[in-house]
């Protein structure tokens, strides 16, 4: 990995993906702030069932918070909303808008993250202008119904074949993150290991330490 992209590998160390499934009466903004206080280095707003107006208001609120913490903020799938509020970028999957088309909408300076499960998908995403790849699911996950498992060997192969940063996602916890050692990733993305925890700030700080250890930092 060595290509210049719109995000730095260190920003991708501990990437928090939101999920209102874990709210339990709390607000998303308070949970994201706890993750930021604990040291999350990147935030993705992932909403699957929110109406446009509520999604817009929430995105503006979380964007403001992330700016205060100087942490990149991207939106899952919704390129139009990312463009409208001037978010730092978007994350798209294999069945979403193609990276080349996202780039046309957002311009050269925004961050485009793309999900990849195979080397072919990873190479194509890089060629089409992705700034980083999210590869998973590296472990079984309860947070995404249609996740398909990606083996350690495939993760490693993807890292070897692209020149953009790769992060792993899916079922990662403080206890199993060590298993990703020597894969070539520069960080991890999680939902439940942060937002499913009682003390989000402490869990984030702990996971960040474990991730740094795994990376040999
Ligand atoms: C960092 C990161 N990596 C992968 C994904 C999965 O994206 P996608 O395949 O589009 O699936 P949904 O998240 O839309 O269910 C992600 N969101 N973030
Ligand atoms: C959003 C997402 N994408 C995945 C993929 O495999 O692409 S797995 C996943 C869910 C990650 O949540 P948790 O950390 O709770 O397992």
From TrEMBL:
Binds 1 Mg(2+) ion per subunit. 2-[(2R,5Z)-2-carboxy-4-methylthiazol-5(2H)-ylidene]ethyl phosphate binds at residues 141-143, 171, 191-192. 4-amino-2-methyl-5-(diphosphooxymethyl)pyrimidine binds at residues 44-48, 76, 115, 144. Gene3D superfamilies: Aldolase class I. Pathway: Cofactor biosynthesis; thiamine diphosphate biosynthesis; thiamine phosphate from 4-amino-2-methyl-5-diphosphomethylpyrimidine and 4-methyl-5-(2-phosphoethyl)-thiazole: step 1/1. It comes from the Bacteria. Its EC number is 2.5.1.3. Residues 14-194 form the Thiamine phosphate synthase/TenI domain. It is an enzyme of class 2 (transferase). One of its GO terms (molecular function) is magnesium ion binding. HAMAP family: TMP_synthase (MF_00097). PANTHER family: THIAMINE-PHOSPHATE PYROPHOSPHORYLASE, THIAMINE-PHOSPHATE SYNTHASE. NCBIfam families: thiE. Condenses 4-methyl-5-(beta-hydroxyethyl)thiazole monophosphate (THZ-P) and 2-methyl-4-amino-5-hydroxymethyl pyrimidine pyrophosphate (HMP-PP) to form thiamine monophosphate (TMP). This is Thiamine-phosphate synthase. It comes from Coprococcus hominis. The lineage of its organism: Bacteria, Bacillati, Bacillota, Clostridia, Lachnospirales. The gene is thiE.
């Amino acid at each position: 990995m060595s290509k210049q992209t719109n995000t730095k590998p260190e920003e991708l160390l501990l990437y928090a993906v939101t999920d209102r499934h874990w709210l339990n009466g709390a607000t998303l903004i308070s949970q994201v702030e706890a993750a930021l206080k604990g040291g999350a280095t990147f935030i993705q707003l992932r909403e699957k069932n929110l109406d446009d107006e509520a999604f817009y208001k929430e995105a503006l609120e979380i964007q403001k918070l992330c700016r205060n913490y100087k942490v990149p903020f991207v939106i899952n799938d919704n390129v139009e909303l990312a463009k409208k509020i001037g978010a730092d970028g978007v994350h798209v999957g294999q069945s979403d808008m193609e990276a080349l088309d996202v780039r046309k909408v957002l311009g050269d300076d925004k961050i485009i993250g793309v999900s990849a499960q195979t080397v072919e998908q990873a190479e194509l995403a890089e060629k089409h202008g992705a700034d980083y790849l999210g590869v998973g699911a590296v472990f079984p996950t309860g947070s995404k119904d249609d996740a398909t498992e990606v083996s350690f060997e495939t993760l490693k192969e993807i890292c070897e074949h692209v020149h953009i940063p790769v992060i792993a996602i899916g079922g990662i916890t403080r206890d199993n993150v060590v298993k990703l050692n020597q894969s070539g990733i520069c960080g991890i993305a999680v939902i439940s290991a942060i937002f499913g925890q009682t003390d989000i700030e402490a869990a984030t700080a702990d996971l960040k330490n474990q991730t740094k250890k795994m990376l040999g930092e």
